[in-house]
Design brief:
This protein is of the alpha+beta class. The chain is built from three helices and seven strands, in the order H-E-E-E-H-E-E-E-E-H. The radius of gyration is 16 Å and the shape is globular.
């Protein structure tokens, strides 16, 4: 791993680019969180048909880079897959943004799955990254909507 310090603008540009991709959809709202040790970069809400307040949330951690060499930036990304002293209860992604080429990639940390037993979160080690563009954002959001629909069905109101 290189000890070279990443220029200050890399974080700002990478978060701006990730926010731009996410908000390319009208049903996605991004809250930029203040950076805390081990914290999240974005808390993302996906509108549901029920009203103005969405409970369909997911977390995004953003890592900026100036390198197109995956082996080089992967070293700095591995830590994002292991939140220190915190459990993850929401779907979560890592977005890596190359600010020189304006290209982005994503990987699930806590992947929403729909199985015969219902909605599950699968926790993944650092692994394969996929191109992140508007089509990928559509696929992520559509997957989250289905997952939350199934999760909602799993909760049965208690009798009064």
């Amino acid at each position: 791993m290189t000890t070279e310090k990443i220029p200050w603008f890399v974080a700002e540009r990478s978060e701006a680019f990730a926010g731009l991709l996410l908000t390319s959809r009208k049903d996605v709202h991004v809250q930029n969180k203040n950076k805390t040790e081990g914290g999240v970069d974005f808390l993302v809400a996906v509108d549901d048909a029920g009203g103005p307040f969405s409970t369909r949330l997911f977390v995004v951690r953003v890592k900026g880079t100036t390198s197109s060499d995956e082996a080089e930036w992967m070293q700095g990304v591995k830590e994002l897959f292991q939140p220190p002293n915190r459990a993850i209860y929401l779907p979560a992604c890592v977005f890596v943004v190359n600010v020189r080429e304006n290209r982005a990639f994503y990987a699930w940390v806590a992947e929403p799955l729909v199985e015969a037993q219902g909605a599950k979160l699968r926790f993944l080690p650092p692994g394969e990254f996929y191109d992140l563009d508007r089509a990928a954002i559509d696929a992520i959001v559509d997957r989250l909507k289905v997952w939350y629909d199934i999760l909602h069905q799993q909760f049965v109101p208690a009798p009064i």
